[in-house]
Amino acid sequence: MSVSAHDRLHTLRNALQDQFERYTHKLTTLTAHGTAPEHEGFDRQTAVALIDSTRQALADTTQALKRMTEGTYGRCEQCQLDIPVERLEILPHARFCVPCQQTQHR
Predict the structure, then answer these.
(1) What span, in angstroms and rounded, lies between the C-alpha atoms of 77 and 100?
(2) 9/54 Cα distance (integer angstroms)
(3) What is the largest CA-CA distance in the chain?
(4) Residues 5-104, CATH architecture
């Protein structure tokens, strides 16, 4: 039984919404003790790195949800071709297809 593109998109939207909720909760937890990160067992530098990476993940997820709303989700921001759904299933917030992503880091 094949899964339709609509069903896959619905599944990806749900995954992104779940990620958004998890990252929001994690960021809230991390920043609640921001002045005393050792409370969570982290030194200050580790706590700051965790907060920064969680903020970035939350921003990436938010942007992916925004692209879904705008109808541009799944389209490479560089070449404008469709990002393979298999890539989106692995990395739901992907903004670039693999070839364009590789050129971003050169």
Answers:
(1) 9
(2) 24
(3) 53
(4) Up-down Bundle (1.20)
pLDDT digits (tens, 9 = 90+) for 18-31: 999 999 998 888 88
Query: Which of the 8 DSSP states describes residue 5?
Result: H
CA distance 59 to 95: 12
Residues whose CB falls within 8 Å of the CB of residue 1, separated by 6 or more in sequence, listed in order: none
- pLDDT at 38 exceeding the cut of 70: no
* pTM score, whole prediction: 0.79
Helices (H), the chain: 5-32, 44-70, 85-90, 98-104
User: In angstroms, rounded to a whole number, what is the distance separating the alpha carbons of residues 9 and 13?
Assistant: 6
- Give the residue extent of every domain in the chain: 5-104
**Contact (CB, 8 A) for 23 and 61:** yes
Q: What values do phi and psi take at 75, rounded to 5?
A: -110, 130
